[in-house]
Each structure stands twice: as C-alpha cells, then as structure tokens.
C-alpha cells in the first residue's frame, strides 16, 4: 500500500439554487443544480506516525481542528480505529468563504485519500453518506460534474453533463457566512423561484444559451441586500457578459461568456476597473470529481 497521494479538489457553482422550506433544525430544504468548474486546490497527503497536521500557503485557512480537512480525517480515523496520523499539504487556489465550496471539496478529497491510503474499500456512495455529517456541500464534491442536489443538499442525482461553458469569476475581498445568509432568508417575502426544469432541458439538449438564460440563485435576495458591494459587482459583471450570477451564498459573482477570448477580454477590463484586492479568474464547467494527480 502507498504512503502518499496527491489529489485535486474542484470548486463548484450553482446553476440554480432554490430554497423550498425552513426545517425545524434550522437547515433549509433546497433544490440546486450544482456544477464543478476548472478551478482546483491541490492536496498532498502522507501517512505520519500520529496526529493530523495541516500545512497551507493560504493565510485565511485555519490549520487547527476547525479545518474541514481535520474534521474529515478525525471522523474516518475514529470510525476505523486508525491510530497512525496524516499530514496534508494544501495549495489553495479556490477563494475562501466565497460560495465556491473550497473547504467542502478539500474535505471530500480527504475522505477519498484516507479511503485509499488505509485501504478502507468504501464505495463513493459510502464516502458520500459519511461526508453529509460534515457539511451539506461535501457529498456533491466527491463525484462533481453536474448534479441535482435536494434535501439539505446531500441527496444527489447525476444529471446530463453540462456543455463546456466559459465564465469569469470575481471574488470580492470579503467573506460571506453561509449560516448568516440562510439565517436572514424570509421565504414569505419571496415569490419568484428559479425554474430548474428549464435548465434541465438545456442540459439535456446541451444548449448553453438555455442553461445561462434560466440560471438563477434565490440567495441573491439576501446577499445582494445585505452587501450592496455584491449588488454593484453583479451589475458590473452583468454589463460585460452574457449574464451574471452569484455563486452559492456569495460573495463570488460569475459572468457567463461565449469563449476563452471573451473571458480574457472581460477579465482584463475588470482588472482595470476593480481594485486589485478582487480575485478574478477565468474558468469553465467540467465533469470532474476528486481526481488523482
Ligand atoms: C449555499 C451553498 C450552496 O451550494 O453553498 P456555499 O455558498 O456555502 O458554497 C450550500 O447550500 C451550503 O452548504 P455548506 O456550506 O456545505 O453548508 P454547511 O456547512 O452544512 O452549513 C452551514 C450553515 O448553513 C445553513 N444551511 C446550510 C445548508 C442548508 N441546506 N440549509 C441551511 O440552512 C445552516 O445554518 C448551517 O449551519
Ligand atoms: N480546508 C478549508 N479550506 C477553506 N476554508 C476552510 C477549510 N476548512 C475550514 N474552512 C473555513 O470554512 C469557511 C468556509 O469556507 P469555504 O468552504 O471556502 O467557503 P464556502 O462554504 O462559502 O463555499 C471559511 O470561513 C474557512 O475559515
């Protein structure tokens, strides 16, 4: 059995994000079409004698037991009585607390790595069941691609693969808490919900124009109101691209574009018009889950 493994974990966007109801436990029933994109973190895992050590190049990522990597490792070590340890070297490229599921995808990679390094022989479904105990977005990250997420986001159905769609991601220089956004959502005040069936049709017919036209995120109702900077950013990105959309609970805004040329052009304009604390990345949809490098 090998002692080291290097994995890539991909960011996600929400092509649609609908919230149907608030549950008694404070969580919300959602309906989301989730999509991985070509923006990834690199994680190098190695067995060590004991402990869970996290090393990262990103100053905002905690390296203690609040890191989702730590939580994922601790959970599997406990369940399977593993007494050795693990060192994880995280190269962070996915913006943090951005609505792009960076931490969730790192946790998914950790489950995959430990399964492989210690020969636990868990199937992807068995890993996803365990992932749901750590965070709502983590099960999706295991298989990635295009999936419909229901329940609190952990019940998944693999959908027709999205066509290649280019986008420009703009992450402003502040974080938005997912719990705060859900906590400030008043469903009684919302009467327009995303039409996921139209996006499903677009996926079936590989029509990126239809997918883009009907893409929609209900949480914009909360985040754009509470953070006027995100509203202004969305308007700016919208004026330069086919359409702008917020990812997850925000604050990242993405603009759909027709191809790599237009993407780079829009990126250049935004780099000139926004201050350099904004993180601007050209990306595209992909069909990748956790992947060995
Ligand atoms: C909004 C979404 C859309 O993909 O993503 P992000 O913006 O975080 O990337 C997800 O629903 C977020 O998933 P994730 O960030 O994994 O959520 P968790 O860690 O499980 O929960 C953080 C907090 O968000 C709230 N929460 C989360 C999921 C859900 N279905 N209902 C909720 O009310 C709860 O208050 C919870 O305490
Ligand atoms: N491995 C990790 N990478 C990034 N953030 C992490 C990680 N583990 C825990 N966190 C914490 O989780 C929070 C949410 O991060 P992240 O998953 O990047 O965003 P989001 O939930 O918006 O998609 C951050 O505030 C960060 O401090």
UniProtKB/TrEMBL annotation:
It catalyses: 4-CDP-2-C-methyl-D-erythritol + ATP = 4-CDP-2-C-methyl-D-erythritol 2-phosphate + ADP + H(+). It holds the Pfam family GHMP_kinases_C. ATP binds at residues 95-105. The active site is at 12, 137. Its EC number is 2.7.1.148. GO terms for molecular function: 4-(cytidine 5'-diphospho)-2-C-methyl-D-erythritol kinase activity; ATP binding. Belongs to the GHMP kinase family. IspE subfamily. This is 4-diphosphocytidyl-2-C-methyl-D-erythritol kinase. It comes from Orenia marismortui. The gene is ispE.
């Amino acid at each position: 059995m090998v002692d080291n493994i290097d994995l890539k974990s991909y960011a996600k966007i929400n092509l649609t994000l609908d919230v149907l109801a608030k549950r008694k436990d404070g969580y919300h029933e959602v309906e989301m079409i989730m999509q991985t994109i070509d923006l990834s973190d690199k994680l190098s895992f190695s067995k060590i004698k004991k402990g869970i050590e996290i090393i990262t190049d990103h100053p905002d990522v905690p390296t203690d037991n609040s890191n989702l990597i730590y939580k994922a490792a601790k959970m599997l070590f406990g369940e399977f009585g593993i007494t050795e340890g693990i060192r994880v070297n995280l190269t962070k490229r996915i913006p943090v607390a951005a609505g792009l599921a960076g931490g969730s995808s790192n946790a998914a990679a950790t489950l995959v790595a430990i399964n492989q390094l210690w020969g636990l022989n868990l199937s992807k479904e068995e890993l996803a069941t365990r992932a749901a105990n750590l965070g709502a977005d983590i099960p999706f990250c295991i298989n990635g691609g295009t999936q419909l997420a229901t329940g609190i986001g952990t019940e998944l159905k693999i959908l027709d693969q999205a066509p290649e769609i280019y986008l420009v991601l703009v992450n402003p220089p502040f974080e938005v808490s997912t719990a705060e956004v859900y906590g400030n959502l008043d469903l009684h005040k919302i009467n327009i919900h995303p039409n996921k069936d139209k996006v499903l049709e677009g996926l079936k017919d590989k029509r990126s124009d239809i997918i883009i036209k009907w893409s929609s995120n209900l949480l914009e109702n909360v985040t754009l109101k509470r953070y006027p900077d995100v509203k202004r950013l969305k308007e700016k990105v919208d004026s330069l691209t086919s359409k702008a959309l917020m990812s997850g609970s925000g604050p990242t805004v993405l603009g759909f574009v027709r191809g790599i040329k237009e993407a780079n052009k829009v990126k250049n304009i935004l780099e000139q018009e926004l201050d350099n604390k904004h993180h601007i990345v050209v990306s595209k949809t992909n069909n990748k889950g956790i992947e060995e490098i």
